[in-house]
Write a structure and sequence with these properties.
By secondary structure, the protein is mainly beta. It has one helix and ten strands, in the order E-E-E-E-E-E-E-E-E-H-E. It is 10% helix and 43% strand.
Length: 119
C-alpha cells in the first residue's frame, strides 16, 4: 500500500494528551495515517483512514529522506487493509525531519524496530 503526502507531522510528547507521541499525515486524496504510543504502553497504535486504531508490537519502520516504510507481521495485515507494508512518500522540505526521527525512536522503543537511512 502506498500513500503520497505533502508532509509528515510528528510530535514526540503531546502534553495535552498525557505525553502521547504521534506521527501522522494526510494524503492529497484525504487518506489519513496515524501512529501513536503513550510512554507507559507496551504497544503502539496505528489508524489508517476511517478504521479504528489497532494495537501492535513488532512493527519495523524505515525512514529515508523522502519515504517512511512501515512493515507489519503477517498476523497484523488487517491493520493495513491486507497489506504487510505501507509506504508513505513525503516532502522532506516541508517535514521537520529531526522531530520525526525523535518521535519514531520514542514510539518504537521496546515495541518495534527503527531503521534510519538518513545521512
Amino acid at each position: 500500500m502506498k500513500i503520497t503526502a505533502p508532509l509528515l507531522l510528528a510530535n514526540p510528547c503531546d502534553e495535552e494528551e498525557e505525553n502521547l507521541a504521534t506521527v501522522c499525515c494526510f494524503s492529497a486524496q484525504g487518506d489519513m495515517f496515524l501512529m501513536s504510543r503513550y510512554p507507559d504502553e507496551d504497544e503502539l497504535e496505528i489508524s489508517l483512514g476511517d478504521n479504528d486504531p489497532s494495537s501492535l508490537a513488532g512493527v519495523k519502520v524505515t525512514l529515508s529522506p523522502t519515504r517512511l516504510l512501515l512493515e507489519v507481521a503477517a498476523g497484523d495485515v488487517d491493520v493495513l487493509n491486507g497489506d504487510d507494508h505501507l509506504e508513505i512518500q513525503f516532502d522532506a522540505e516541508a517535514t521537520d525531519m529531526q522531530e520525526l526521527e525523535q518521535t519514531l525512536t520514542l514510539i518504537l522503543d521496546g515495541v518495534g524496530t527503527y531503521a534510519s537511512e538518513l545521512s
